Amino acid sequence: MAKVYEKSPAFFDTFERKPSMQKTTHYCPGCGHGTLNKIIADQLTELGLQDKAIFVGPVGCGVFIYYYFESAAVSAAHGRASAVATGVSRANPDGVTISYQGDGDLAAIGTSNAIHAANRGENMIVFFVNNNTYGMTGGQLAPTTLIDQTSTTSPTGRTVKNDGYPLRMAEMMAGLEAPTLVARVGVNSPRNVRQAIKVIKKGLEIQRDKKGYVFIEVLSQCPTNWKKDTKEACEWIDDVVSKQYPFGVFKDMTDERDAVERRCERVEFSAIAKQLGLEADDSSSDAQIDMDKDATQFKFAGFGGQGVLSLGMMMAQLSMQHNMEVTWLPSYGPEMRGGVANSSVVVSKNTIGSPVVELPDVLVALNRPSLEKFGPLVPEGGMIIYNSSLIDQVPADLKGSVFALPATELATEAGTAKAANVVVLGFIARKAAMFKLADLEAFLTETFKKPALVETNIKALRAGWEVAENL
Amino acid sequence: MKKLVKGNEAVIIGALVAGCDAYYGYPITPASEIAHAASEYFLPLDKVFVQAECEVGAVNMVFGAASSGQRVMTASSGPGISLKMEGISYLAGAQLPCVIVDVQRVGPGLGNIGPEQSDYYQVVKGGGHGDYRNIVLAPSSVEETYRMTIEAFDLADKWRTPVFLLTDATLGQMMEPIDVREEKTFRSDKSWALDSKPESNDNLVTSIYLDFDDMEKHINGLHEKYRQICDAEAKAEVYGSDEPEIVLTGYGIVGRMLRSVVDALNAKGVAATLVRPQTLWPFPEKILQQTVKADVPVLSVELSRGQFIEDVRLSLPHNPVTWYGRVGGNLPGIDELVEQAEKCLKEASNG
């Protein structure tokens, strides 16, 4: 005689992940979860997907979904199953990721995560078990609770005034472009179960074929919290609940969609080095820069847009190539928008402690506010280079040696006022005898790449260099 | 090969060298360059990069990826770390290896985007619910940010636990050279992880234990592991005199500034020593105890109003420990710190 009903092999024989009563489920009598679990298990078996399945459990009555299915499983925080499932799905592109969530979990605390997983079209199937209540937590109001339906937090019934309208998740999901299949089914009658089997099978086939996101809302009876017997509860779904939440397939793009492969690879260091642009560095030299002191502190200041941050970066980069310790610290935030941007650079033969430059050995001031702000901080013996193209008044209280450099004019002559910072670089390099002209030119060629830009910047560099040479 | 990078970019280069498989994050200043670099480098290498819908989403995607045995990370700054705390508690409870970066900014509330160290309690003492600990590494330079990111992945795997990298706005935004080359990393066996193979069917990743005795056993197991981590992983840099008259202590950006203060004090004839904790949990209390002799005063500096100092005081119950710090986004000057150290010495000698 043929068996017409048997336990699905996708279930454990005994529920060993359950701490006690390992032959029975934790579901209340008459609950729809058990029927849904059975349908999923049967379809996983039929499609041969049990070993590929990874279950993400929610918080709610589905929390112990892992008791029953003999598949890899993870429990998520309340509402987070779709986000956890995203991580699982991306890490297991060959798996079948199943997120099993209830109304509180998916339609309240985790709505954002659920909608965005759907909108990314993650390869996952989400079962949204809608029984219009927080079952596990004790029958509180859910976003899906019907108008006038009582709950432990709406004891006289849900009102629109206080709680708004019941949320139709399937319709909402179907409004998104990405999902492949969106449907609402029921597990309350043989007729609805037959339809549910069809839809769930299709949803799992979509997962097998990596064709994107599937959302299946399941109207499920909760005799316990509805305070109805099983028969009444099942009938109530057809007579009342399904009027608010109609059954149907709201979206089916199965035939239009291609498989989505999201790769997840481990790579060799050589591939990383290539991606980072790390090539054998022949421009660096073992010889350090010959400086009077062990460390020189630079402050480059000017308007935002005058290139003071990149001037600092060029100084740091060049010094690094000359085997020096360097730090580069930008000013940012309100200060930057207020007119004075600056970068601090420390170039040292030894390990650098503080990267903050309080008393600069070298100050470059490309506009008047920065000369006024930082000029007086340069100690005796220090160097102040100011942009005489834009600054006509020099504060009287400066202690450092002051050099007027018409940086903007020289840069404009070279081809663009934007190269004022490179004029300064040429001046400092020559004046402080830090770098050779040829090294600088090679550096600019490497930095700017485009021939026209390289030419302009080399002109600007030489202009600054010559001013220093002719002092 | 040397590369001049921002601290935030160094995190991602370290992650790549450590074989990080996936990055899940959400933008926030001053941590966003981490996400920028991750998107730039991860996707072309066929690694996972997802900008999540929110911080909570990001940390739970990390949870899913870590459950699946991936090397995975996320990064944010204080306000975002506050949001991630729920997920971090679950990660600790389920013993999932992952790396979380907090580029600290000013708080409470929106605060501002300047540097502070006021997430110390949140990151070092917990932040999420329940009785758990996370390893917390505190770099003080861009190079150390790079090294410690690699180390963080190894520690996370070794101990099956989340590891924090605690930096700040200054360290994240400043540039220094890092020396990038192939490094040995130690990926642990993850046969417990979720997989799409028959042999993983019995694998379950969870933090729920309904039975009280099972739960107690799990928590006690976590704490036995934490005890072993305390014995094995506490680290600090000690710099300066062997016989200090004063000991300075601080972590991260402050730690490196104190190095300059030690030099300045030593130049003035004051024997000073820096103890810079490199792990904040476990706190290197033994190193502090060995360095700070009886009656030697300690100046504890932080960019917060007295969080870090609690661990210094717990480590040195019999020494005079003085707090100094700046908040709001300000960094102290070296002269300012030298003055505080001298004041601290003077007060100690006056008894």
Topology:
The complex is a heterodimer of chains A (about 475) and B (about 350).
Chain A: H1 33-47, E1 53-57, E2 72-75, H2 81-91, E3 96-102, H3 103-109, H4 111-119, E4 125-130, E5 133-134, E6 140-141, H5 160-163, H6 169-174, E7 181-186, H7 190-208, E8 214-219, H8 223-226, H9 230-244, E9 248-252, H10 269-275, E10 295-302, H11 308-321, E11 325-330, H12 334-337, E12 341-348, E13 362-365, H13 368-374, E14 383-387, E15 401-405, H14 407-414, H15 420-431, H16 437-448, H17 451-469
Parallel strand pairs in A: 1-2, 1-3, 3-4, 4-8, 7-8, 10-13, 13-14, 14-15
Antiparallel strand pairs in A: 5-6, 7-9, 10-12, 11-12
Helix pairs in contact in A: 1-7, 3-4, 11-15, 14-15, 14-17, 15-17, 16-17
Chain B: E1 2-6, H1 7-17, E2 22-25, H2 32-42, E3 48-51, H3 55-67, E4 72-76, H4 78-93, E5 98-106, E6 112-115, H5 120-124, E7 135-137, H6 142-159, E8 162-168, H7 169-173, E9 175-179, E10 204-205, H8 212-233, E11 236-240, E12 246-249, H9 252-267, E13 272-277, E14 279-281, H10 285-291, E15 298-302, H11 308-315, E16 321-325, H12 334-349
Parallel strand pairs in B: 2-3, 2-4, 4-5, 5-8, 7-8, 12-13, 12-15, 15-16
Antiparallel strand pairs in B: 1-9, 5-6, 7-14, 11-13
Helix pairs in contact in B: 1-2, 1-6, 3-4, 9-12, 10-11
